[in-house]
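OP here, attaching both records as promised.
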Amino acid sequence: MATGDWRLFCQALRYQVPEWIRGQNVFPSIDPLALQMYFIDNRLRDHHALNDAKANRHAFNRSLVQQRPSLSRKSR
């Protein structure tokens, strides 16, 4: 999760983020071809928050996830 996104998320929860929630940038784990194909196959526009979230979920490749430090509540 980008730092700006994490800050917005924390603000939305009024900084009452449960301990079990950790942010992590998953952009490196997104398959770019699968991402574009999702938009084409579903005839959706990109840069719309809900469409982008669905496309990212579709294109997320768990095997590309590397162990990285997560964004914790302390990194607000």
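Record two, same layout:
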Amino acid sequence: MSTGWVTGEAGDPESAYEYDAFGMLLGSHENIPNRLLYGGQQYDVETEQYYLRARYYNPVIGRFMQEDTYRGDGLNLYAYCANNPVMYYDPSGRNSDCNHATDAEKNTQQENVTEENGNQTVKDGAYRASLYSASWENGSLEEAIARFAPDSTPVYTDKGKVIYRNETTGIEIIYDKNGNYFRINDTTISGKRSYLN
């Protein structure tokens, strides 16, 4: 499980991290230094790689930097998680395992975090909004919908999001009710840089 945020003694969020599927850091805000990031692995700031106990992993190219010492299941000795980090994980750098997290575990990881004393911290969206929303007062959800997804029918998700999609262009306005912010996503762009804002 990757580190999404770090809280202080009072339970207030102090650091936040966001990754793509292969572990590249897409955004961060750090008040408390932390080396355990994607997959709970040690991140080396100088090399911008993760140390997975047996070898170094480069999230930019999605490959290990050294050959796998086990020469078993394939020809690519540098592959990370069989090129599918959504379904597999590799905590040791030696062998990919299937990600067996149940839906309940995934929901627990992505929704509210409750501390041992029973206090509840903020939701993901609310925390991200508190970090990155300094200039958002100029943004208008209504204007974004009118410009990028006019005449769209809102789709409500069970995660507190409302999606307005332009079927012609593939542009989506994704509004997070929990964090009271929105993002603009271009679904025609593949890879990790599909958000336009």
